[in-house]
From TrEMBL:
It comes from the Bacteria. The keyword Transmembrane helix applies. This is DUF397 domain-containing protein. Keywords: Membrane, Transmembrane, Transmembrane helix. Residues 1-18 have a biased composition (Polar residues). Residues 1-20 are annotated as: Disordered. The chain crosses the membrane at residues 47-67. It comes from Kitasatospora saccharophila. Residues 10-62 form the DUF397 domain.
Length: 70
């Protein structure tokens, strides 16, 4: 398995994140075709990797109300 080096990645905090609460960051340009997502309260912790298409479908579902963010 190949590891993706995210040490110099520019992370973007979700506009839906709350202060002191649920905080999600994503890295839109980390690697072609992949979108890493992590908990901003644990920046040294693990990141989930989504394909760009899967991440786009997830965001579309959230924006359309098909999924609800807590």
């Amino acid at each position: 398995m190949t590891r993706l080096d995210l040490s110099n990645t520019h992370w973007v905090k979700s506009s839906h994140s709350t202060d002191g609460g649920d905080c999600v960051e994503w890295a839109p340009a980390a690697h072609p075709g992949l979108v890493p997502v992590r908990d901003s309260k644990d920046p040294q912790g693990p990141a989930l990797l989504f394909t760009a298409n899967s991440f786009a479908a997830f965001v579309t579902a959230l924006n359309s109300g098909l999924l609800k963010a807590n």
